[in-house]
Amino acid sequence: MPQDLTGKTVVITGASAGVGAAAARELAARGADVVPVGRSADKTRVVADELGVQPLVADYASLAQVRSLADRLLERCPVIDVLAHNAGGVGPDRRVTEDGFELTLQSNYLAPFLLQALLRERLSASRAQVIVTSSMGHRFGRISLEDLNFSRRRFSPFLAYAAAKLADVLFVRELARRAPETGISAVAFHPGAVGSSFGRDAGGAASLLYNTWLARYLLLSNEQGAAPLVHLATLDDPMSVNGRYFHRMRADAPTSKQARDPELARELWATTEAMLELS
């Protein structure tokens, strides 16, 4: 019998479609008070209407919108039991946001980091669990603390995405290291290759997979992709998976050498705080 989540508050970003929307529906069906956050006002409203709640809208290409989102979450949620950082994306070329950061880095890593920082006290008081949607693609990424924005090294959509998802894994590692002080646990997972709209505009080999008839045979459904997120959000003891990386349901899945470097995780955290002027 599915676990009863009545009384639990779950915030899911990237909940307007795909894995996020599927996870929102399943967790709400189990009784959770789900707060869906999305970039598209229309799509997020459709999901929120299904759940009987009010949607929150924020575009991660704007850090001002992330700050506004944090204010609205603090107003709406006295307690946050689970924060699922699921929003993200990959584009076909290098673009710079109004904040001066490369878009893939900002939407997948910097914006979630900022939201996390702005909600830190509420999450700590709630002894919240943080779940980050990463990707097995992180194993192909490389963190250069001197050039996170890909302004000097060779840019490709895939390499930028892989680096951002590697940053997400390191973000989880450092959050987990701080858990004894903060009470916040953290875990990352790869949902699998999901047949959502995520990769259709990425260009290159990714678009060949997502936009052809092969997709229906090779890609997972949104519900299948959401299953690891739902599983992690319903654990009796979130600290039991603190700092771990899942490939779908498999814990301690292979990661890159950089993803296992605790000193790099600390340095990336400090560098990110400086970039976002948080320190």
What is the number of helical segments per DSSP (H or I, 4+ residues)?
11
Query: What share of the residues lie within helices?
Result: 40-55%
The appropriate CATH architecture is: 3-Layer(aba) Sandwich
The CATH topology: Rossmann fold
Question: Would you list the SSEs in sequence order as H and E?
Answer: EHEHEHEHHEHHEHHHEH
Strand content: 5-15%
Briefly say what this structure is:
By secondary structure, this protein is an alpha/beta fold.
Layout: helices, strands, pairs:
Layout: E1 9-13, H1 18-29, E2 33-38, H2 41-51, E3 56-57, H3 63-76, E4 82-85, H4 103-118, H5 120-126, E5 129-133, H6 157-177, H7 179-182, E6 185-190, H8 204-210, H9 215-218, H10 222-233, E7 245-247, H11 262-275
Parallel strand pairs: 1-2, 1-4, 2-3, 4-5, 5-6, 6-7
Walk me through the structure.
- With 279 residues, the protein is α/β, with parallel strands linked by helices.
- It has a single domain (9-271), classed as NAD(P)-binding Rossmann-like Domain (Rossmann fold, 3-Layer(aba) Sandwich), CATH 3.40.50.
- 44% of the residues lie in helices and 11% in strands.
- The chain has helices at residues 18-29, 41-51, 63-76, 103-118, 120-126, 157-177, 179-182, 204-210, 215-218, 222-233, 262-275; strands at residues 9-13, 33-38, 56-57, 82-85, 129-133, 185-190, 245-247.
- The protein has a seven-stranded parallel sheet, sandwiched between helices.
- Helix 2 (41-51) links the parallel strand 2 (33-38) and strand 3 (56-57).
- It is globular and about 50 Å long.
- The N and C termini lie far apart (46 Å).
